[in-house]
Amino acid sequence: MALDRLIKNILEKKNPTVAGLDPKLDYIPDYIKEQAFQEHGCTLEGAAQALLTFNKGLIDALCDIVPAVKPQCAYYEMYGWQGMRALKDTITYAREKGMFVITDGKRNDIGSTMEAYAAAHLGEIQVAGERFAPFGGDALTVNGYLGTDGIAPLLKVCKEKDTGIFVLAKTSNPSSSELQNQEVQGGEPVYLVMGKMCEEWGKELPGKYGYSGVGAVVGATWPEQLAELRKELPHTFFLVPGYGAQGGGAKDVAGAFDEKGLGAVVNSSRALMCAYKKEGCRPEDYAMAARREAIRMRDDIAAAIASV
Amino acid sequence: MALDRLIKNILEKKNPTVAGLDPKLDYIPDYIKEQAFQEHGCTLEGAAQALLTFNKGLIDALCDIVPAVKPQCAYYEMYGWQGMRALKDTITYAREKGMFVITDGKRNDIGSTMEAYAAAHLGEIQVAGERFAPFGGDALTVNGYLGTDGIAPLLKVCKEKDTGIFVLAKTSNPSSSELQNQEVQGGEPVYLVMGKMCEEWGKELPGKYGYSGVGAVVGATWPEQLAELRKELPHTFFLVPGYGAQGGGAKDVAGAFDEKGLGAVVNSSRALMCAYKKEGCRPEDYAMAARREAIRMRDDIAAAIASV
Questions:
Q1: CA distance A137 to A16
Q2: Could you tell me if the ipTM is greater than 0.95?
Q3: Residue ranges making up the domain that contains B285
């Protein structure tokens, strides 16, 4: 149930990290782009093909050591419906390789509209009796600004399809404080109000490791709030962006974990995708460079958790 | 600049309304679906084709009297990338017919990720020097929970491409109060904090009618807050959902308008799309039934504005 499949993957691989698949064209080695443009022209199809080839290489190189991937919808949507097809194909490929897929869409709406997003990303739809999983991820990031009306439709689908959600609580960016740190009457900041709603919503999706199917997004750039929220939200699993390129280190994320070393999955995107550039190795070795960086990150975070 | 093209359309058509294009399969007449399934099978392609045909009929029937359409992304995304292709084709068709297109995606993210959404929906992207407008709308609804880091990338694109945004402030649903009505220190509710940020962000996109390129979403179901926000946010144009099916009436939305009768555009989706069902007319007349309902709505709202 819930996020249990993710947690099982994390335990098996002894690795609480997720590989962000945010494939900007700039990150993709030229030889992949040239091949894609030769086949499809310098078009949206060509770009989408380059994204998919790049992703498949990363997935092949990471799937036995990294438990999950997190494709960021925006980087697919920016190549139109052709890019969205690459998103679907990426998700399918990663799941075939046993990875848990967190679709990072930050979707939000209400009622039957939110049901449509839930079906699109976590469930199935019917067309004249035929069933389809339009994108088919295992979890979806969502924005809870609209309240329970925007979350309840997801819970229903999550229960039926054994999928989960991550609700934005305290995001990694500097200006997240403008709204999220405003204190409401009683003195609680908005991010904690949102976190407590996650605990409440999560009651409908209990999990066997103690964490519900309603996780929260909390940035690695806010170590104090991470530790505060870990204490306040004992059943809420965290998705932690902001490690690496955005400035969060392993020590910063340690507070996101409980005494058993569970409770969070830490994302890295650019550092993995661009490891070959940083290493200065051959572009053809980009996937193995990502694997080396993934191992370094795994060990870095494991050491920080152990030392707490 | 900004939302001026929308306001110009509203003035020319003397009609401050927008037609929501949320084409659930249930809303679409059988003869359209049967034709689409015959050509493409009972598949996502078939569903997407039915959506597009239905939308084109509505756009043809409405384009000379209604200034804008608002396709809701979720109802396209739920049919996968095939549905997203129908979204793109719907937007292109509506713009060819002179309608202003508000893409209702409630997208949100930060930095270069938000730049990707901005390019996808309001701007252009480059593939090896070739330029493409992936979806090509005139405005996008967005969620401001992440603060300025999530909005600034949009402002840049809006300035370059003469497009605009609508930020969620007070949404139409009952549980919007859970977070949005929480009062922060100083006593202001979260929706007003968000509204004031819209005024601030809007300074970068001034418009010639006094309204900036940063609008706000405020539900017709909250007439008091609509009137309060109209007073507090003199440069922020409102997108008002919740009229009709969700319970808001013409009197309820009157407070969203200024003394010149400007300041808001009121959305109706289901009441237009399903007018043929309510009328009991032939399904083949669905578009003309939508036109009759659009005229009724226009006159209903005009009367309410005039009587204030």
A1: 19
A2: yes
A3: 4-24+65-79+99-306
Q: Which residue has the tokens 């006159």?
A: B299
Determine whether the interchain pair B168/A145 forms a contact, defined as Cβ–Cβ distance below 8 Å. Answer: yes
C-beta neighbour count of A63 within 10 angstroms? 18
How many other CB atoms are found less than 10 A from the CB of residue B223?
17
Three-class secondary structure of residue A38 per DSSP: helix
Longest CA–CA separation in chain A, Å: 61
B240 DSSP β-pair partners: B266
Nearest to B129 among A42, A79, A185 (CB): A42
CA distance A165 to A60: 25
Cβ neighbours around B124 below 10 Å, total: 15
Length of chain A as a residue count: 308
B30 touches chain A (CB under 8 A): no
Q: Helix or strand or coil: residue A169? A: strand
Q: For residue A120, give the nearest of A128, A112, B145, B274 by alpha carbon.
A: A112
In tens, the pLDDT along A256-272 reads 999 999 999 999 999 99
Q: Which token pair is B73?
A: 């992304």
Of B106, B159, B196, B251, the catalytic one is B106
Distance (Å, rounded) from C-alpha A10 to C-alpha A238? 13
**Number of domains forming the structure of chain B:** 1
Give ∠ CA B25-B30-B35 in degrees, rounded to 5: 100
Rounded Cα–Cα distance for residues B272 and B268 (Å): 7
Q: Phi/psi at A276 (nearest 5 deg)?
A: -65, -30
In sequence order, what are the residues at sequence separation of 6 or more whose Cβ sits closer than 8 angstroms to the Cβ of residue B277? none
Structure tokens given for A152: 């309840």
Of the partner residues A84, A130, A149, the one whose CB lies closest to the CB of residue B84: A84
Q: Is the pLDDT of residue A1 over 70?
A: no
For the segment B94-119, what is each residue's pLDDT rounded down to a tens digit?
A: 999 999 999 999 999 999 999 999 99
* Alpha-carbon distance values, A58 to A9, A63, A274, B24, B112 (Å): 18, 8, 11, 37, 21
pLDDT value of position B1? 65
Looking at residue A202, its amino acid is G
Contacts of A194 in chain B (CB under 8 A): 179
Q: Has residue B38 been placed in a domain? A: no
CA dist A168 → B145, B175, B286 (Å): 9, 17, 41
Task: Check residue B267 and give its pLDDT.
Answer: 97
- CATH number of the domain residue A140 falls in: 3.20.20.70
Q: CA–CA distance from A61 to each of A101, A119, A304, B43, B84 (Å)?
A: 16, 30, 25, 34, 31
How are the residues of chain A apportioned to helix, strand and coil, as percentages rounded to the nearest 5?
Answer: 50, 15, 30
Asked if B182 and B144 count as a contact pair (C-beta separation under 8 A), the reply is no
Q: Which residues contact B71 (CB under 8 A, 6 or more apart)?
A: B20, B21, B22, B55, B87, B90, B91, B94, B101, B103, B104
In a domain, B73, yes or no: yes
Structure tokens at B60: 């043809």
